[in-house]
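Deliverable D2.4 — example input (structure tokens):
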């Protein structure tokens, strides 16, 4: 163990080795601790860890039982008996009206009580002590007077030993409280406990709705610490209406929205899979025909007249449902019964240039003999 003493405030909550939470800057580079993991304390104690006499003491000299503690609920705040060997003259009964005020804040005879809520973690000081982890590795109080929540370890500091490639356990449940089904408890009354911004991009910010698919693909086990597969299925199968994404009537208006802003839709949805599968289940379209067996059509009336312009505007949208043979079925029968020429009036004068620019489009209907095609375009 270290040769320096830890304060009552620190060692009481020093029972924890990690803190899932919001680590943001606060004066002198010290990080704020999560109020969820470390509930706010009220510290009304006079103490100076930096005093030379205290620096010479071992931590367990004041925090008796710290190296034997296996529960985060253990009270490791020093009692008066721990102070008596050095301060017996000041603390013994009948030593004067200022006896309590020597260590406790407040007026004579009316001291202010301290409050140290239990941390919402699972932690064993004894295990860390057996592994040779010294007190100051997690609680650097070398220059502190009264130690506060600012001297408690953060989750990121714990990743020095619990991160990837290290020997200590990496699972969230090793330190954080769990529900009976094994998932982490994230609801704590005042608010939800969420991952920090530095944890594999899993910060649940405004962009996470789009970003979560990549995090889930790379870190599925991390997501499973809090979420069930049922939650994913309900949302992706449309059973859950995420109103902050799509409003309640979006099902009836999404077609027009998709036509106006395909790139935005594609940031979450894949047209070839998501859209096609949903339309197929609803009987709105098949791969080979825009008309369903039930007689319902995906395209509005007069679409035949407009589809050429729409195809030129956004071929990728058409190809999300249709394959090339759908086009050839109508446009590849020119000169035969029912054939519809895909070429506008006067196209013959531009035929050679079109062939030189993209022969692939020509051979689909006219055959792969390029020499014959060039001869026809002269």
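Example output (designed residues):
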């Amino acid at each position: 163990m270290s040769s320096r003493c830890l304060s009552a405030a620190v060692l009481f909550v020093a029972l924890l080795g990690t803190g899932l939470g919001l680590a943001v800057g606060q004066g002198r580079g010290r990080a704020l601790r999560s109020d969820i993991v470390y509930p706010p304390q009220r510290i009304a104690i006079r103490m100076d860890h930096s005093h030379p006499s205290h620096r010479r003491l071992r931590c367990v000299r004041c925090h008796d039982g710290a190296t034997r503690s296996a529960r985060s609920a253990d009270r490791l705040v020093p009692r008066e008996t721990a102070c008596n060997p050095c301060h017996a003259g000041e603390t013994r009964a009948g030593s004067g009206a200022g006896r309590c005020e020597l260590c406790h804040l407040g007026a004579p005879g009316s001291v202010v009580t301290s409050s140290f809520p239990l941390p919402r973690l699972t932690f064993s000081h004894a295990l860390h002590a057996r592994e040779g982890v010294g007190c100051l590795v997690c609680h650097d109080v070398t220059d502190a007077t009264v130690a506060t929540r600012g001297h408690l370890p953060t989750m990121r500091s714990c990743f020095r030993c619990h991160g990837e490639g290290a020997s200590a356990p990496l699972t969230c449940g090793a330190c954080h409280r769990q529900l009976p089904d094994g998932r982490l408890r994230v609801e704590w009354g005042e608010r939800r406990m969420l991952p920090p911004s530095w944890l594999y991009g899993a910060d649940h910010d405004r962009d996470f709705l789009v970003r979560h698919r990549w995090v889930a693909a790379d870190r599925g086990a991390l997501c499973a610490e809090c979420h069930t597969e049922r939650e994913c299925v309900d949302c992706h199968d449309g059973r859950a209406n995420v109103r902050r994404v799509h409003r309640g009537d979006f099902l009836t208006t999404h077609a027009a929205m998709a036509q106006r802003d395909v790139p935005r839709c594609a940031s979450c949805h894949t047209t070839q899979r998501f859209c096609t599968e949903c339309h197929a289940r609803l009987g709105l379209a098949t791969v080979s025909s825009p008309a369903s067996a039930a007689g319902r059509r995906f395209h509005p009336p007069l679409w035949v007249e407009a589809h050429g312009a729409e195809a030129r505007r956004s071929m990728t949208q058409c190809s999300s449902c249709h394959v090339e043979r759908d086009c050839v079925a109508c446009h590849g029968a020119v000169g035969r019964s029912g054939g519809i020429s895909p070429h506008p009036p006067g196209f013959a004068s531009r035929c050679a240039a079109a062939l030189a620019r993209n022969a692939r489009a020509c051979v689909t209907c006219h055959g792969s003999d390029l020499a014959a095609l060039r001869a026809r375009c002269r």
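Residues 8-77+114-174 form one domain.
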